[in-house]
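6-phosphogluconate dehydrogenase NADP-binding domain-containing protein
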Amino acid sequence: MSLFATYQVGWIGLGSMGLAMATRIQDHLQAQGLPGLHYFNRTASRGQQILERGAIQCQSIAELVQKSSVICISMSDDNALKNIIQQISSTDSDLETKTIVDTTTVHPDTTKEVAALLSQRGASFVAAPVFGTPPNAEKGELMIALAGPRREFLNVLAQSFRDVIAQDVLIVSDLPEKAALLKTLGNFVVAGIMEIISEAHVLAEKSGLDSQLLESFLGKKFGDAVHSDSSRLTTGVYIPAKGQKATSDLHLAIKDVQHGIDSAEAVGTRLKVAEVAMENLKRARDYSDAHGGRALDSSSLYGIVREDAGLDFRNDIVRARPEEEEH
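Predicted structure tokens:
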């Protein structure tokens, strides 16, 4: 059973992640000769890419809800998600026939709150936070965690997502907030690994050990994921060229890591590594503000670790860029 062949799917939110996922879904629908993806985005021009592929633009959330039975959401943060859920809950549509699938990274308490709000209107809710970057989404290489009360539907959703937008899908729990918690823990681990790799590279540089040798070791010992994180530092991805967007936005990383710190505090424990990473992420944000709001990657905590060791925020690769001469 295919989700896309059985249900009319709608999509709300076309940020970098949302657009990448929606594009893959629309391409799949078109290839299968199925009706186009209904979509809504506050900035209508963001949908031009999928409109040209056959997707169907809705003029309002109410219209999308009325025309869709499964409604996927991809927003930037908790407040944006709450706003969308409130609008969905306020529509005149019979929500008892609707399933809301939220891919946004939010605090577990936010997931619990919006699930309860939708339940009051009779709607089904599935938390489906995604692990990965926009380039991963464009290639269909995401990991998705699913949680919700309807296991049979989760199985259909898992297989359908796996075929189109995800490399792997985990069914976590019948409680939606548990998927959000897993995503929060995943973000904590990612931030912690980046902090450790940053410190390792700075020690290597200060001690005269070749960074490529260290990077090669990290890849061979700890695998492709750690090697990829290391290369974000050594190739300068952590500080994009002026005028370029970050692969993984610093401000969203701060939001995500804070969710982990707050979740730990709520149950009487601490994520001490996350607290260290958070301090460096916030200081990287200060660096961005001091340089005209320059876009920084979530790995830019590396620049702060460098500064604390008496090095330039920018490594040799970054400083060698022509535009950096005006720094």
